[in-house]
Predict the 3D structure of the following.
Amino acid sequence: MGRNKFSEKEIKSIRTLLGKKCAGTRFQQKEIRHKLRVDYEFNISDFGVQGKAFGPEELDHCVAHGVIKILDDATIEDMKAKRARDKKRDIVIEDYTNYPIE
């Protein structure tokens, strides 16, 4: 599961990428979906209907109906920093759980 809160700047970039995805070849679509997942933690499957295309219009619909929220840049940066700290903590915990107890 990805994020559902983005800055206005991120939404504009995501909208542009979704437009390119809809117009691209199958290979280009895969690359763009990967970029959306990695760079923005945006998973189309979190918002779209399986088997239907998800483009800029669907993104706008999700924003208009509050499924995707737009927050200010500072809040988004704080949220990303917290996610990074949590991820780092989870890796450390996982490292300890992989050692057998003797």
About this structure: Residues 25 and 31 are 10 Å apart (CA to CA). The chain has a mean pLDDT of 89.
